[in-house]
């Protein structure tokens, strides 16, 4: 988000301007815009032209204009121009509203415009970095949540497997006991039959 050009004018007369990487065409369009404005009423508007946004603020017959990329947004432009309005009033007061000489205040106020444009760019850069960091944290949070879900799923599967293993061991143990008892009974019966057979032979 960039502010390419900024202008302060008393009605149709430019008082101060600052070009921050914009071409001369932007300045010409901005100054042509002055001729179409109604200075009798306060207004804040944004006009799109040639891929750029031309935002202006009219206050007490003084107009404040900034040219930005479309991503800058109307509300951000309105806040920026209100801030420039306050700085201009504080620095020049009635003198700023009375002068009619072209670029008469440029030497005094252009550095202020340049500083505010750069400051806005730095703030936007910080804002973008913060937003990127927040997005990374949220993305990392989603990944952590996914890992937690998978961990819980594995834990549930592990618990189910452990329960199944215990049931299987118990079943095998019972089967083994049944087999042992059956073999014991069979051996006992065989011994009993053998004993009875031998006893019968002896008696005979």
Describe it.
With 204 residues, the protein is α+β, with helices and mostly antiparallel strands. It is built from four helices and five strands, in the order ββαβββααα. A hairpin with a 2-residue loop joins β4 (52-59) and β5. The chain folds into two domains: 3-150, Beta-Lactamase; 151-203. α2 (74-92) packs antiparallel against α4 (106-203). The model has no long low-confidence stretch (mean pLDDT 80). The chain has helices at 24-34, 74-92, 94-98, 106-203; strands at 3-10, 13-19, 43-49, 52-59, 62-69. The protein has a five-stranded antiparallel β-sheet with strand order 2-1-5-4-3, with helices on both faces.
Please give the domain count. 2
Weakly predicted, low-confidence segments: none
Which strand order does the major sheet show? 2-1-5-4-3
Tally the beta strands: 5
Query: Which series of helices and strands comes N to C?
Result: EEHEEEHHH
List keywords for this structure.
single chain; alpha+beta; Beta-Lactamase; 65% helix; 4 helices; five-stranded antiparallel β-sheet; rod-shaped; 204 residues
